[in-house]
Structures are given as C-alpha cells and as structure tokens.
C-alpha cells in the first residue's frame, strides 16, 4: 500500500493491488524489476537512461528501506508499550513518590522555629521533662528558668492539666534523726469521680525531716512547705528540688502573694514565756526573685497560742488561735502575705476548739471550719463558713452522715475536691499492713463513698525498711497544681 513519486518522495495515495509498482530489486538480484523490460541498447542515450533509471531505483530502494525501518521501529514501540501496559503503574508510582519526596524535602528545608512557638511547645511538656531540657541549650535553660515562663506554666497547669492528690508522711518521731524520712506520694485525679481507688507513686524522699500531727505540710502554689521546729523545708514534688531555710522560730507559716508573685514565710521568734507581755515578734522571709531577704516586724496584739494548722487562701494565711489570758475569745489569725500584716478575726467557740481538734479548710474559695466532737462517733458535723472578713460574719450548716466514720479524733479533713465533695481521711497510717482509705462526702446528695489509696501503706517490705509504725501522721493536699517554681 506504499508508493513513491518520481522525485523519490513518499506518495500517500493508495495503490491498487493489481497496479504495477515501480520498485527495483537489488542489483545482484537475478530477477528484473516488475514491469521493467531488459534493454540491450548500448548507445550513449540508452546508457544515460539506464544510469538515470538505476539512480532512480536506488533512491526508491533507499526510501523504501527507510520507510520499512521507520515502520518497524513504530511497530516495536507499539509492541513494547503494549507489553508494559500492566507494569507501567509501578514506575509511574515510583516517579510520583520520588516527586513527592523531593517536594517534602524542599518543604522541610524551612527556617528556624519561631521563639514564640518554641515557648508554646515547652509550656505543654511535663515538669520533669523541662528539667532535663534545660541541658539542651543555654537559650532553653534561660527560657525555662525565667519568672515569666514559670508563671505561664503554672497558669496552664491550673486550667489544662489534671491536679494532683498529694500525700505526705514520715516514719514517725521515734526514729533516729539519721533514719528519719519524709515521703511524698502523688496520684492523678483522672477518673477519680467514678473510681473506687487511687494509685499513688512515690515522688520524693527527703532525709532528716519528720512531720507530726501539729506540723504544717500543705501545698501552696505548686510548692510544699513543712516545718514544726528547726529548718523550714520547701520542696517541689514535680521537679524534685528541695530547699531548707533556717528558721529560729517555733511556728512558721508559708504563703504566696499572687499580686507580686512572691513566696513568704512568717515565723514566730518570741520564746515562751514571752519577753514582752503584749507583743509577739515575727520574722518574714521573702523567697524568690534573687537571694532570700529577711525583714523583721513587730505585731502589737495580745499574746496568742496557735491552735490549728495554717492554711493559705488567695494571698492570706489563716490559723486558729486563742489568748492564754482570755480563752473565751477565740480568733482566726490572718496574715496578709503582700503587705506583711497580721490581724485577727473573731470566730465562734466551735471553730477554734481548745483541744486543738479544729479543722480549717478552703470551701469554695472561702475559709471554713469543720466542727465535730472529737471523742464521740463521727456521724455529724457543723460547717462554719467565713462569709465576710471585714465584718467577721460566719454562717453555719449542719450535716448528718449516712453512717458513722468512726471516732472523731481519728479523722481529719484536708479540704474538698473539684466536685465540691468534702474529704475525710485518717490522721495516721494503720499499724497493720493494709490499704489507706479516704471518704468523699457529697453534701447535696448526702452520700459517702470510700476510696482506697493504693501504694502508701500496703507494702510490707517498704514499711519494714523504713520502720513505719502507727505514729506516722498523714498530711494530704487534695488540689496540688503542677509547677516548676523553685526557691
């Protein structure tokens, strides 16, 4: 179906099958070309025509070969593509993957992470991880230790992270000083409302420190301060840092000023009997913001005896007290952490018991006291709430429990949880190896649920190793916020 014109060009016009085709065979062929008669004329004109015919036939032959080669090449390409049609997807996918990887490589070659984004990432990390990441670079160490970052971390922990349930106790007063230990356990509140048990982990062990029933060991703005006499211990369970401050007084209060972002300790230095009959001398230690600085201040108020544990609420440290000369006028001591002023609030007799069994708690952001008879079965209690600090106005609510929780003198209350349930817990560990338990009382539904605390008193080997006995007093902070602050 192929023909050529007399100029040697390819003619695309179809050729009839019976038509003659002016195609020449090779010169060494024994057959003559189709429709070409042999010539025996040897004249010059004949020779010239023969040369022209031979040249023409050669051109036609070359063009024919060229067309055959082109057609053969096209056929081979078609067959090759057809045979690889089922396998083409693999190299195509590979090419797509290579292009994607190249694109990802180009996109990954971005500039450094902005500093604001780095800070946001660091704020969402656990406290223990941040302590390790201080070794990454000087810049990270400077960021993590800055006061602005510490404050932002605490604010995020207050709103986004689960608060911790802190339990602190020592191995008793009977232990030798070199054998004394303060153990701090913690547990997460996740799933606490529907769970019948909490699993604790040992966060810290502080040597040569002990706490008893009258000691203060409470959580204040992410730190825990503990003292009865001797060194004042401040620790952070999240970072593991411990600071011991020398305090010469017998009673020390630990508070936090949210306005100036400062921790302060108030210690009573006047010995018994008092040198001045109407004056108590206190020292105020300002912590943080550089080197600790001491300031002395005198309080010209009637002499008092501290009757309860200390409690810090919104920049004020409260404690129950009474005067040895006029015991019919119980008061609540109120130390303003920011302005370093100590004042007194009149309180009902039931709020400050002479036996030292008063329980001060924070109830919905206000100071409250739980009053119950210490030597009778604990089946009811009165909740006194300080409604107005300026007018010394108190309100009272009486609650009856569904069943008795035992002898009142064996129980205390560390406060409430997020759901508003009042927590009751034993003052000391049991003498026998058995789980420690607490009670949650819902005042609206008037029901009680018992929650077992696992991991603090049910390990026989742990109790034997550290000499835990029945005189191990327990201190609970139910709403501890994770912090990276240090003194």
The percent range for helix content is 10-25%
Q: CATH fold name of the largest domain, please?
A: Neuraminidase
CATH architecture of the largest domain: 6 Propeller
Overall mean pLDDT stands at 76
Integer count of domains: 3
Pfam families: F-box (PF00646), FBA_3 (PF08268)
Organism: Arabidopsis thaliana x Arabidopsis arenosa
Protein name: F-box domain
InterPro entries: F-box-assoc_dom_typ3, F-box-assoc_interact_dom, F-box_dom
Give me the secondary-structure topology.
Blueprint: E1 3-4, E2 10-11, H1 44-83, H2 89-108, H3 115-123, H4 127-133, H5 138-145, H6 147-159, E3 164-170, E4 181-188, E5 197-199, E6 201-207, E7 216-220, E8 223-227, E9 232-236, E10 241-245, E11 251-257, E12 262-268, E13 280-287, E14 293-299, E15 305-306, E16 311-313, E17 316-322, E18 331-336, E19 341-346, E20 359-363, E21 366-371, E22 380-388, E23 393-400, E24 411-416, E25 422-426, E26 436-442, E27 447-454, H7 460-466, E28 474-480
What does this entry look like structurally?
With 487 residues, the chain is α+β, with helices and mostly antiparallel strands. The chain has helices at 44-83, 89-108, 115-123, 127-133, 138-145, 147-159, 460-466; strands spanning 3-4, 10-11, 164-170, 181-188, 197-199, 201-207, 216-220, 223-227, 232-236, 241-245, 251-257, 262-268, 280-287, 293-299, 305-306, 311-313, 316-322, 331-336, 341-346, 359-363, 366-371, 380-388, 393-400, 411-416, 422-426, 436-442, 447-454, 474-480. A five-stranded mixed β-sheet has the order 5-27-26-25-24, with no helix packed on it. A hairpin with a 2-residue loop joins β16 and β17. The protein is elongated, with a radius of gyration of 47 Å.
């Amino acid at each position: 179906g192929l023909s050529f014109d007399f100029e040697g060009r390819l003619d695309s016009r179809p050729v009839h099958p019976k038509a003659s085709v002016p195609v020449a065979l090779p010169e060494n062929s024994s057959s003559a070309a189709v429709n070409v008669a042999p010539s025996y004329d040897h004249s010059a004109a004949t020779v010239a025509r023969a040369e022209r015919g031979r040249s023409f036939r050669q051109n036609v032959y070359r063009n024919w070969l060229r067309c055959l080669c082109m057609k053969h090449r096209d056929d081979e390409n078609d067959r090759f593509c057809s045979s690889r049609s089922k396998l083409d997807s693999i190299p195509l996918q590979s090419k797509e993957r290579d292009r994607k990887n190249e694109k990802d490589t180009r996109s990954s070659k971005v500039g450094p992470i902005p500093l604001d984004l780095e800070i946001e990432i660091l704020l969402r990390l656990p406290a223990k991880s941040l302590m390790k990441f201080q070794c990454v670079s000087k810049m990270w160490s400077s960021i993590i230790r800055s006061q602005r970052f510490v404050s932002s971390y605490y604010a995020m922990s207050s709103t986004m992270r689960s608060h911790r349930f802190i339990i602190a106790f020592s191995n008793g007063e009977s232990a030798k000083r070199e054998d004394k230990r303060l153990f701090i356990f913690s547990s997460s509140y996740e799933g606490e409302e529907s769970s019948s048990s909490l699993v604790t982990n040992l966060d810290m062990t502080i040597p040569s420190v002990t706490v008893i029933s009258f000691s203060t060991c409470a959580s204040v703005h992410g730190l825990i301060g503990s003292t009865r006499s001797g060194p004042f211990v401040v620790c952070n369970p999240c970072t593991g840092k411990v600071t011991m401050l020398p305090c010469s007084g017998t009673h020390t209060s630990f508070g936090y000023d949210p306005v100036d972002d400062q921790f302060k300790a108030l210690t009573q230095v006047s010995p018994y009997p008092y040198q001045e009959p109407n004056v108590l001398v206190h020292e105020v230690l300002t912590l943080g913001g550089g080197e600790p600085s001491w300031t002395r201040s005198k309080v010209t108020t009637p002499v008092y005896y501290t009757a309860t544990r200390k409690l810090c609420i919104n920049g004020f440290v409260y404690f129950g007290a009474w005067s040895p000369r006029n015991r019919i006028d119980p008061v609540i001591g109120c130390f303003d952490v920011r302005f370093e002023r100590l004042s007194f609030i009149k309180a009902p007799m039931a709020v400050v018991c002479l036996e030292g069994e008063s329980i001060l708690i924070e109830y919905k952001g206000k100071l409250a006291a739980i009053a119950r008879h210490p030597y009778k079965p604990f089946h009811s209690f009165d909740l006194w709430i300080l409604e107005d600090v300026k007018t010394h106005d108190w309100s009272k609510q009486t609650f009856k429990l569904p069943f008795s929780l035992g002898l009142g003198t064996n129980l205390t209350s560390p406060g409430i949880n997020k759901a508003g349930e009042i927590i009751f817990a034993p003052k000391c560990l049991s003498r026998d190896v058995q789980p420690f338990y607490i009670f949650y009382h819902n005042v609206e539904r008037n029901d009680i649920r018992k929650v077992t605390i696992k991991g603090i008193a049910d390990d026989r080997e742990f109790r034997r190793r550290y000499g835990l006995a029945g005189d191990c007093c327990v201190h609970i902070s139910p709403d501890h916020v994770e912090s990276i602050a240090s003194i």
